[in-house]
Amino acid sequence: MEAPNRSSVIIVGAGISGILAAKELAKNGVDDIVILEASDSIGGRIKKQEFGSVSVELGAGWIAGVGGKQSNPVWELAIRHGLRTCFSDYSNARYNIYDPSGKIFPSGVAGDTYKKAVESAIQKLSSDEDQFSIRPETPIELAIDFILHDFEMAEVEPISTYVDFGEREFLVADERGYEYLLYKLAEEFLVTSNGKIMDNRLKLNSVVREVHHSRDGVIVKTEEGCAYEASYAILSVSIGVLQSHMISFDPELPRWKTEAIDKCDVMVYTKIFLKFPNKFWPCGPGKEFFIYAHERRGYYTFWQHMENAYPGSNILVVTLTNGESKRVESQSDQETMREAMEVLKNMFGPDVPQATDILVPRWYNNRFQRGSYSNYPISANSQLVEHIKAPVGRIFFTGEHTSEKFNGYVHGGYLAGIDTGEALLEEMKNEKDRQIDNESIIQPLQALTLSPKM
């Protein structure tokens, strides 16, 4: 193993929280940092890929919370750097629900079913007993339950993102990708050339496996055989990685910390992209999203066409979550395409063209992520979030999962990174003040010890 390299702060993870924490430190004169990123690029769960001649977002794809009195910092960043986006309106999805025979449910039926589902969800949230709430049973009830709880929970309870920043959402539709914003942030404190980060303080393909910590500092070891030593560490890895025990701690994290980490849920959100030779689905106002009502909840339920983002791309996206995501991740892409095509033929008839390509992200099986985003239980209290984000000695924790108000969102990770950077700066200042105080006490004592006896 190589000899440890000393720095002031080691940051584990170069997602948006890690980049913002590093930027905050550098802005305040702490540029003696090392950023260790397990993958071959920055961005974390903000990641694009070329598919069907366009750039698609495998992870975070929307800027949620726009149009309110308070400005979303990620939206401000997107505007500043000219990121191309297009408005998405989920509200019409409930009126584009197909039954297994390909018929669209009448708007009155869909509206009434949706209204009853919202009332039932509100009743369930407001009471410890759910015996009076309506349990979804029919395909349309299951479909609406899915879109309500997996996509539109804001209609059931106030969500800080929409209360604080506004209710509008914009899909990122830029060939440079959502990750372009992270590169622009990184440019402010890392050395770049021709759009690439060339700074040796950023170590890509560095998979952290051990964190040793004491009163004097931390030593971080990677599976590649490197060791890095610093006064402090910031862990910006996902809550899924923390739960997976991929990183070991010596000494172990205290029980209050591990129990809090384990109580946080991890959502798996899989956007499956399908490329076709031609368009066969409805387009136009109010048609961006459509729903398939199946007897199994979440089975290829939520669909979106990419014509608004990339006209003429002939790409459909179907979003799966949690159990269905894990199931699909474990099977071949060919089997997933077969299932998706069967659903599309049910909706649009047997003559729909065969998809020419498929892209299936695997966030749950990605050992550097182990899921898509955090989801605190409804019963969670502020103490749980405080325990998850609280430092342990010289180890600080950041990420969207440490944001009490905005966990699960990109802007949550953005603001959490800044908060963690500021908290560490305050701790570094306090440590320096303590050292000065100790020296002011020790020096007079040394003078007394060395003075001649009377």
Automatic annotation (TrEMBL):
<feature type="domain" description="Amine oxidase">
    <location>
        <begin position="163"/>
        <end position="421"/>
    </location>
</feature>
<dbReference type="GO" id="GO:0046592">
    <property type="term" value="F:polyamine oxidase activity"/>
</dbReference>
<feature type="binding site">
    <location>
        <position position="208"/>
    </location>
    <ligand>
        <name>FAD</name>
    </ligand>
</feature>
<dbReference type="InterPro" id="IPR002937">
    <property type="entry name" value="Amino_oxidase"/>
</dbReference>
<feature type="domain" description="Amine oxidase">
    <location>
        <begin position="16"/>
        <end position="106"/>
    </location>
</feature>
<keyword id="KW-0274">FAD</keyword>
<dbReference type="InterPro" id="IPR050281">
    <property type="entry name" value="Flavin_monoamine_oxidase"/>
</dbReference>
<comment type="pathway">
    <text>Amine and polyamine degradation; spermine degradation.</text>
</comment>
<keyword id="KW-0285">Flavoprotein</keyword>
<protein>
    <recommendedName>
        <fullName>Amine oxidase domain-containing protein</fullName>
    </recommendedName>
</protein>
<dbReference type="InterPro" id="IPR036188">
    <property type="entry name" value="FAD/NAD-bd_sf"/>
</dbReference>
<dbReference type="InterPro" id="IPR001613">
    <property type="entry name" value="Flavin_amine_oxidase"/>
</dbReference>
<dbReference type="GO" id="GO:0006598">
    <property type="term" value="P:polyamine catabolic process"/>
</dbReference>
<keyword id="KW-0560">Oxidoreductase</keyword>
<feature type="binding site">
    <location>
        <begin position="37"/>
        <end position="38"/>
    </location>
    <ligand>
        <name>FAD</name>
    </ligand>
</feature>
<comment type="similarity">
    <text>Belongs to the flavin monoamine oxidase family.</text>
</comment>
<dbReference type="Pfam" id="PF01593">
    <property type="entry name" value="Amino_oxidase"/>
</dbReference>
<feature type="binding site">
    <location>
        <position position="17"/>
    </location>
    <ligand>
        <name>FAD</name>
    </ligand>
</feature>
<dbReference type="GO" id="GO:0050660">
    <property type="term" value="F:flavin adenine dinucleotide binding"/>
</dbReference>
